[in-house]
Every structure is written in structure tokens, then in C-alpha cells.
């Protein structure tokens, strides 16, 4: 198993957490998103992933031969199917839908507005200055996480984690988003439920090992 990853990529971070939770071994292939104009945009990398995004996972042991997988949530679902224990999704259909809704609200509604290529477009094409770019980031991140706080706080299913007392696919998505929110100095003071779950995740080895600062391509 090879994971083409960038240490600070939220999407790559999600997959690293899931692999660690399931105890699956993998090799990291660093793809630097900033050096050399962005290594993810190189012709060599795009023969592997035409979107020019990370992560990409290559499974040499797939049933039908080598498999190349893209999109972090598709990879998470794939890992759940080929390595079902420990489970990242609960057994009941409604509960699985709840966990997926949390994951999708982060991966599809919050993260895309703050992704590197969007921020670059704001700066290079729309000539937005650094302060305005960071204000954009904080606005969409804070508003999205505030909505998530309401969902988690009023539902009876969260416990130590987004669903009960066992990490799920939702926590794999939450932790990277909070990491980036803190890095960009978002105001998270009104999100006690979200932050309690985040802190609980940070006590587990699977999350610690997946953290950006613990990756082979980490930079100071």
C-alpha cells in the first residue's frame, strides 16, 4: 500500500488516520504541494491522478491487480470494505448515514472553500491580499464548524467521539479540519462539543501518528 501524501493536506491526513486506526501498514510517497510549482501538477503525478490532487493510494494487493484510488472519502470507504475491523462505520443504516453526514459536511462543505487551489485563485487571479484571504478562510471554516457544533450538541449519538465512544469516519474528517482551523487562528471558542471530541481524538496513537508534524515530509 502506497499513499501519495502531503504532510499538511487535510484529505491525506484523513486517510492516514483511517489506516492507523485499522492497523494497516503503508508507505508514504511525499508530494509537495508548493515546491516546483506544485508537484501534484506535474505530468508524472497526473498520470497517476488526473485531478492533480492528494491523496492518491495505490493498492498492489487489490483483488483485480494494482488499484489506484483517489478522493479521500472514497479511499476511506474502500478501506472499510477491504478491512472491516475495526469498523469506521456503525452497524445500523441510520447511524451510518449520520456518520457519513458529518464527514461530508466537513469534506464537501467546509474544506473545498479553503483548499489550497481556491486560496491560490483568490490571491493570483482575483488579487485578494493576505488579510482578505485569511478572512475568507476563517469565515467559511468558522461558519461550517458552528453548524457542525449544533448538529453534534443536539444529537444523542455523539459520546467521546462524533458517534459514541469509538472513532469513526467522521472523526477522521474532523481532526484535520480543526488542525487547519487552529493553524489559521479561527475562533473555536463557541464550539465546546467539537473541541471536546477533537481533544479525545488527540489522545489516541492512531491520530498522533497521523499528525502533520509526525510525517516524513514534515517541515518546521
Strand percent estimate: 5-15%
Indicate how many domains the architecture comprises: 2
Q: What is the CATH topology classification name of the largest domain?
A: Glutathione S-transferase Yfyf (Class Pi), Chain A, domain 2
CATH architectural designation of the largest domain: Up-down Bundle
Q: What is the count of β-strands?
A: 4
Shape: globular
Instruction: Report the structural category.
Output: alpha+beta
Number of helical regions? 9
Spell out the helices and strands N to C. Answer: EHEHEEHHHHHHH
Mean pLDDT: 96
Roughly how many Å is the radius of gyration? 17 Å
- Helix content range: 40-55%
Report the sheet with the most strands, covering strand number, pairing sense and barrel closure: 4 strands, mixed
Briefly, what CATH class of the largest domain?
A: Mainly Alpha
Q: For the largest sheet, list the strands in their spatial order.
A: 2-1-3-4
Question: Which runs of at least 5 residues are low in confidence (pLDDT < 50)?
Answer: none
Alpha carbon gap, first and last residue:
27 Å
What topology emerges from the helices and strands here?
Layout: E1 2-5, H1 10-21, E2 27-30, H2 43-46, E3 56-59, E4 67-70, H3 72-82, H4 93-110, H5 116-124, H6 130-154, H7 169-183, H8 192-201, H9 205-210
Parallel strand pairs: 1-2
Antiparallel strand pairs: 1-3, 3-4
Helix pairs in contact: 1-3, 1-7, 4-6, 4-7, 7-8
Task: Summarize it.
This protein has 220 residues and is an alpha+beta fold.
Molecular structure report:
The protein has 220 residues and is α+β, with helices and mostly antiparallel strands. The protein folds into two domains: 2-86, Glutaredoxin; 93-207, Glutathione S-transferase Yfyf (Class Pi), Chain A, domain 2. The protein has helices at 10-21, 43-46, 72-82, 93-110, 116-124, 130-154, 169-183, 192-201, 205-210, and strands at residues 2-5, 27-30, 56-59, 67-70. A four-stranded mixed sheet has the order 2-1-3-4, with helices on one face. Helix 1 (10-21) links the parallel strand 1 (2-5) and strand 2. The radius of gyration is 17 Å and the shape is globular. 34% of the residues are buried.
